[in-house]
């Protein structure tokens, strides 16, 4: 049986990403991943159509819906965001939504802000807290592309 290293050596490599909106050739395939699966640097992957390849980027990054992974043979694999269980949060008005956003940010929770609402991962404790602050909270299934923020190079940081 081949080792992991031997199998990886036979994979097509992919070391370049074309960002959403910066490529226009038709994609040869797609790959559908949730947000956690889209934050990668190096990993063996299989496209939706069965193309096995080794993603090998210089640094970890969040792939977003519409990015294209460039395979070493020139083919493009378009990234699709897999819908996942989220909370959709709205405020009474813009000021209230800003206060809610501050509470979410103060807890260092990844979130997506768009169309007058905030999306974040489902968590019943956070949902109860937000409802207690007067937010309109609903469970949804949607693609999740959180804001990168000041620490966009990674999801974690420390308070020294």
From TrEMBL:
CDD domains: UreE. GO terms for biological process: protein folding; protein-containing complex assembly; urea metabolic process. Keywords: Chaperone, Cytoplasm, Nickel. One of its GO terms (molecular function) is nickel cation binding. HAMAP family: UreE (MF_00822). It is found in: Cytoplasm. SMART domains: UreE_N. Involved in urease metallocenter assembly. Binds nickel. Probably functions as a nickel donor during metallocenter assembly. Residues 11-77 form the UreE urease accessory N-terminal domain. Its main location: cytoplasm. Belongs to the UreE family. GO terms for cellular component: cytoplasm. This is Urease accessory protein UreE. The keyword Cytoplasm applies.
